[in-house]
Amino acid sequence: MRVLITGGAGFIGANFVHHTLTHRPDAEVTVLDALTYAGNKASLASVADRITFVHGDITDRDLVDSLVASTDLVVHFAAESHNDNSLANPEPFVLTNLFGTFTLLEAVRKYGVRYHHISTDEVYGDLELDDPAKFTETTRYNPSSPYSSTKAGSDLLVRAWVRSFGIHATISNCSNNYGPYQHVEKFIPRQITNIIDGVRPKLYGDGKNVRDWIHVDDHNAAVWTIIDKGVSGETYLIGANGEQDNKTVIELILELLGKDAGDYDHVTDRPGHDLRYAIDSTRLRTELGWQPRYTSFRDGLADTIAWYQQNEAWWRPQKAETEQKYAVSGGTQ
Ligand code: NAD
Ligand code: DAU
Predict the structure, then answer these.
(1) Whole-number pLDDT of residue 330
(2) Ligand nearest to the backbone CA of 86
């Protein structure tokens, strides 16, 4: 099978490339990635001779057309993915997440190619902290940030292309991923690398906000399950019952790194900060038979910390620039 993976030099996409080459050794993998600040070819260095890497933009119609014409499957990860960046400058989010998805959809429509769309639980907005409810496939869309609204828009484009043009597509909405190769702008890697650098971790607001953590390998295994067994036109939620509040996560990272659990600072809260995400993945588990492998967040987090300790050469080049960006954007610093 020929597989075109967009955003394959990013966090989840790079892990998906490795997962695919390990579990689907016959797959012919092509990566299309614009290598924005978030893309890192070093994440694919160990498999460079087993893939075709195309440095290009998903908004480039001619390029996308030629790549989609010669593939059997498109798995679309490429996106502007960071909420804080979307508050500072929403424009690339609209271009990549909306126009980029539109460009891919037009190409898969033209060539009748199978398409899987990677999305986020943030399209559903947030839940109250004391609400026992979780997001399901039928929860109403209610995104909060420029990032999540462009992801919601891209999901709706996919649904419209299924209904209006009959494309063969599935959508997955996943909760917060953690694991190797995640950019140091994101919460967990930012705090791990701050502590390694002797800088106190930074908790937005009171730290009561809840995220539903899943290991990136579990996310990617679920994506293949949906590609193999999912029903065309349907949406599947991916989550591993990993709810944790941010304060607990920061304290656990400090503890696992042998520091005092109170050794962090509260900083200005993110504007519009979503309170709580929680996924009900019953449909994926019962209809398609997927189960997460990482059932202990503590163990998965310990593995992730070890990865950042052992791979400083991978993250070090991005660290100072990322912290500089936080410092000039104000607010969430
Ligand atoms: P990331 O920011 O780490 O990687 C994004 C990748 O896309 C980078 O390699 C970047 O160079 C590439 N890219 C950006 N704009 C592009 C363009 N115009 N053309 C081609 N390539 C472009 O993101 P991530 O965290 O790996 O997220 C991947 C996908 O998963 C996104 O669609 C995101 O919305 C979704 N998602 C992420 C999470 C999470 O916790 N990180 C959870 C659920 C869903
Ligand atoms: O839910 C899925 C989403 O998870 C994905 O769609 C996004 O692409 C991904 O970035 C992630 O979004 P979040 O905004 O939840 O992730 P982030 O890592 O930016 O922040 C996680 C939580 O930690 C959030 O409540 C904000 C908080 N935070 C973040 C940073 C960077 C801090 O307290 N301090 C920080 O320094």
Answers:
(1) 59
(2) 2
